[in-house]
Amino acid sequence: MQKALMTLGPTTLTEPDRAQKAVEEHFGVLDAIKARDxxxxxxxxxxxIKAAQRVRVRDLRAGSHKTPNFxxxxx
Length: 75
Prior knowledge:
By secondary structure, this protein is mainly α. The protein has helices at residues 2-8, 18-34, 38-62.
């Protein structure tokens, strides 16, 4: 799992407002799970992943290549 996360690159949570939006997205997923609405939970999770992807793609296009700060144990 950790190596898969390394492939994604650095976190998007350092972007302005992204952390708050991610928290809101996570609560949307949790609310759907609590409501036992699998379709809604899936849709909310997909939306969360797409939002993070948009930030990453935007950064790549802008040339904002951030070096991940990984602990040696993750390698």
